Amino acid sequence: MINFKSIPFVYRLGLKAKHKIWSDRTKKNIKLYLKQPGLKALHIGAGHNQIPNWFNTDYLARQNIHFLNTNITFPFPSKSLDYVFSEHHIEHIHYKDAKKMLAEIFRVLKKDGVFRVCTPDLTKYLTSYFQEDPLKNEAIKYVMSEWIRPGFYNAKNYSPAPEQENISFFINDIFLNYEHKFIYDSKTLIALLREVGFSKIHETEATKSSIAQLDNIETHTGVIKQFTLAIEAVKE
């Protein structure tokens, strides 16, 4: 079997064709979705997490998960959505692309629409390294067993042995694995949200929201949510 990834030109051509088909399908489904009565909400970077009554999207199209490239203009009309939710997605794109994405989110939200974003919290990770944290050992054990040891696919230069299960691997994991591009603290992310137009912004707990439609919709739960930054921004 030919590995088309080994032929960059052919691979890029095939990917472009695939994205065109997926994009056309997404645009068609958006029109149908917006015609339906009720909640209008966009889920970015859904993975396999299908939120009922939301328009669930990802860079990889799946059944009931629509294709969306967040680096370009969204195929949604301005002021068409009540909510937008992004869970552990923004850290996978470059900072400059994140700014473009947030500007698009601001554009497609209705007045008083809410954007909820959850992402690894730089402050919490670094605090766990420099200070004693009661969750540290539990977190290390969880990440080592569930994430780092089975994968570590984007940090092939090292794979920790059991006796090396310490906080340094936990910190490096969030920077080097999963094709992460930028890890945010609250100050940086809030400043970026303000820059694109949001003015009413507040931190909230991971998996918890005072807004029913945004409460407990994350899949990153358990001990790892203690290292998650969750922010909600309202378009006034």
Automatic annotation (TrEMBL):
Pfam families noted in UniProt: Methyltransf_11 (PF08241)
Name under which the protein is recorded: Methyltransferase domain-containing protein
One record GO biological process: methylation
Methyltransferase type domain segment(s): 63-115
GO MF, any single term: methyltransferase activity
Coiled-coil segments: none
Highest taxon listed in the record's lineage: Bacteria
The UniProt record lists the keyword tRNA-binding: no
Species, as recorded: Pedobacter fastidiosus
